[in-house]
Amino acid sequence: MSDYPPLALVTGASRGLGAAIAEHLAARGCHVVAVARTQGALEELDDRIQAAGGATTLAPMDVTKADAMQHLCRGIHDRWGALPLWVHTAVHVPPLSPADMADERDFAKSLATNVTALQRLIPYVSPLLQAAARDRGKARAVFFDDDRPVKFAGAYLATKAAQRALIAAWQAEATTEAAPDVHLMTPRPMPTAVRARFHPGEDRAALSDTRSEAARLMGEIGL
């Protein structure tokens, strides 16, 4: 049996690293369920994947909506029965501001996307990963960290810290044979919209290409 998964869920797949990972997986025969809020960007992703001979199922959904995520996971269960790979790149970056001027609505949106959505998705997706681990002997959940400037990024950094804590707890608890391998990876600096928010005016030519970085990161976990 090939170690390469026949199916992957990529949450936050419309742009940046998420889109690059979706294309990387699809190019290697993996059917990608691509989730993002922006339907137009998902359709552009689908066009690129199909042009390269790959296959996707587009899911234009907001990860912060519980009903949508329940429907998504139930659909994966009903169609495929299991999920060997989940790659989560969905993130919200609020406007930068001093800590003593932080906007409550911006913080709430960051908390909803970066923490609450993940806390909700882990229990939804975990049974699908466990089913794949029992069937194939391995399943993976992949998350990403980053290194951002401290100044003016309090809301983002606070929610990313909470996200890391959730992932670390799942890693420590995933000790049974049916548990997925839980990975927290740190990409090299890339010319993404997220990075541009923190580093305006940066020389983007010196940064790592998202497709090359997707290939490197997936290669580190055997994909």
From TrEMBL:
Keywords (A to Z) from UniProt: Oxidoreductase
InterPro entries xrefs: NAD(P)-bd_dom_sf, SDR_fam
Family: Belongs to the short-chain dehydrogenases/reductases (SDR) family.
Name of this chain's protein: Short chain dehydrogenase
Pfam families in the record: adh_short
Gene Ontology CC terms: membrane
Source taxon at top rank: Bacteria
GO molecular function, one term: oxidoreductase activity
